[in-house]
Amino acid sequence: MLFREAQVADIPQLSVVRLSVLENRLSNPALVTTQDYVDYLTQRGKGWACEENGGIVGFGIADRLGHSIWALFVQPEFAGLGIGKQLHELMLNWYFAQTSGTVWLSTARGTRAEEFYRRQGWQDTGLTKSGEVRFEMTVGEWNQKA
């Protein structure tokens, strides 16, 4: 598997991965546009992709401006291989090299993603207005984990 920086040219494959997940599905796929991907990859933050046999099977995007993790998704057939963990490490190492600001994310309750973030040391700060679990990570917490 190859981990590399995600590029604008990868957006069609990133979208395929995003739409392939079985949990945290988009209620309306039109809510995340190609322009959203472009903005997050080129202006707001940085992304990484995992390739296997020339195709993208997972990706993550950190939003430095919004102090959040915008995306972390792995195709279901590649779950459990450590791809999400490696993408997570790439994103947080980059994020905390840019800023010491606390980073946050949210995910649906009762999902494998919720369990994953808890195992990675994220702190549960309650629920969002939409009922998702909101997590935060400080630079100190990240450095203790590393």
Automatic annotation (TrEMBL):
Domain of life where this protein originates: Bacteria
Keyword tags: Acyltransferase, Transferase
Keyword match Transferase: yes
Signal sequence region: none
A GO MF term: acyltransferase activity, transferring groups other than amino-acyl groups
InterPro entries attached to this UniProt entry: Acyl_CoA_acyltransferase, Bact_Acetyltransf, GNAT_dom
Keyword Acyltransferase: yes
Residue intervals of the N-acetyltransferase domain: 1-140
Name of the protein in its database record: GNAT family N-acetyltransferase
Organism of provenance: Hymenobacter taeanensis
